[in-house]
Structures are given as C-alpha cells and as structure tokens.
Design a protein that fits this description.
This protein has 226 residues and is of the alpha/beta class. The protein has a single domain, classed as Ribonuclease Z/Hydroxyacylglutathione hydrolase-like (Metallo-beta-lactamase, Chain A). Helices cover 20% and strands 28% of the residues. The strands form 2 sheets. The protein has a 7-stranded mixed sheet with strand order 6-5-4-3-2-1-14, with helices on one face. The chain starts with a strand and ends with a strand. InterPro entries: Metallo-B-lactamas, RibonucZ/Hydroxyglut_hydro, UPF0173_UPF0282_UlaG_hydrolase. Keywords: Hydrolase. This is L-ascorbate metabolism protein UlaG (Beta-lactamase superfamily). GO terms for molecular function: hydrolase activity.
C-alpha cells in the first residue's frame, strides 16, 4: 500500500483502487504550508474525532472531491449541517463494507469536542481491510487493553499511532501498542505540530528499533510503501 503523509495526523492510503484520507488538518499547519489542499484527491475521508486539528479541512476537501466522509454520529450530524450529504455515521463496534474493502470502528481513549465546545461524540479508531493489505489507525488515544481485541479479528500489515505524548500516547506506549496489535511496521503521527508535542526523532526511532519494530516518520508531502 502507498501512504502519503500530510502532517500532524493527516495521511492518505491508496488501497483497493481508492484514495482514503484520514483526519485532514493541513491549512492551519505551518509545517504543511507547501501542501496544496485543493490538489488532494480522496474517495473516502475518515474522521477519528471532532477536535479541530483533525477536521479543519474536511468540508473543503469533501466538496472538492465528492468523497464519502465517515465519523461518529455527532460528527455525521455536523457534516450534514455543513452541507456534506455524502456522509455515513459509524461508532465503535460498527462495521461497513465499502468499495475498497471494509472498515471496523473501534474505541479510542481520548476526548472529543468541536471548536465551539459542543460535544463531539466518542473518539474512534479504524481498522481497514483491503485486497492490498490491512491496517489500524488508532486515532488520538492512550494505550488501552481494548487494542488486544483487534488482532483477534484482523491480521494487520501496519498500524498508525500517535507518538507525540502529552495529549496521546508517547513513544513507550506506542511501542507496547504495536506489540499488542501484532505489527512490525508503524507510521508515527501527531507529533511536532505544536510545541507541547515536539518529539526527539532519533530517540523514537531507536526505541522502536530496540523492540524489533520499524517506525516510519516520512517527510510531509512524501509517499512511502507499507
């Protein structure tokens, strides 16, 4: 599978013949200033929770591309009010078959609210199964034993974990999460964007290597194969 990183927790996976985008937060991110958000092609967009650093560009991209947007029920209602009719509600426990394969919504341990302070529903992660491979995006989360359920149903090829600490897991917890879900390849996200989540890249890579794992920290705008 090809993965393009757009900074913070925004990335795009090409799998099953479709472009699948996650948590679009690009235009306010100074680190992603060279990304032209209007050039991003998406068939599906997944939103892990309602915090502004995960949904800021979703309406713009959805209107540009016609992509189907999936998120929890509260986000779904917000999307409808924002003029995005091609949307679908999915909460933890829910599964849906889509053109690229299937998605299972799972629990994330994190808060969730819209920029105006209104309730944003439960935070989520997603497990995607495709003909090209399977992966787990945890969304913003703490380390949780709920992750042990995932490999009981899906054999994963890689996982996407937040590693910036403070508001989510840090390096140590993400290493343990990788072991729990049974992956050796990890895309790290949710780091460096703000001062309180700036990360030591060398330490992160070393910690994963010492555990027999491979951490990917691609440059913003670059595409890698996983």
């Amino acid at each position: 599978m090809k993965v393009t990183y757009f900074g913070h927790s925004c990335f795009l996976v090409t799998a099953g013949g479709k472009n699948i985008l996650f948590d679009p937060f690009i235009t306010p991110n100074e680190l992603a200033k060279d990304i032209d958000v209007d050039q991003i092609q998406a068939d599906y967009i997944f939103l892990s929770h309602a915090h502004y650093d995960h949904i800021t560009d979703v309406v713009r991209i959805a209107k540009n591309t016609g992509a189907m947007v999936l998120g929890n029920f509260e986000i779904y209602n917000w999307l409808l009010k924002s003029g995005i009719e091609n949307s679908f509600p999915i909460n933890p426990g829910g599964k849906k078959e889509l053109e690229f394969g299937s998605v299972k919504c799972v629990v994330a341990q994190h808060s969730s609210s819209f920029s105006d302070g209104s309730y944003g529903g439960i935070a989520c992660g997603f497990v995607l199964t495709t003909p090209d491979g399977n992966f787990y995006y945890s969304g913003d989360t703490a380390l949780t034993n709920d992750m042990a359920i995932i490999p009981k149903f899906t054999k994963l090829d890689f996982a996407v974990f937040p590693i910036g600490d403070g508001l989510t897991m840090g390096i140590e917890e993400a290493v343990e999460a990788s072991k729990i879900v049974g992956v050796a390849k990890i895309l790290g996200v949710h780091y460096d964007t703000f001062g309180f989540i700036v990360m030591d890249h060398q330490k992160a890579t070393q910690s994963f290597n010492e555990a027999g794992l491979q951490l990917y920290l691609p440059a913003i705008g670059s595409t890698i194969a996983l």
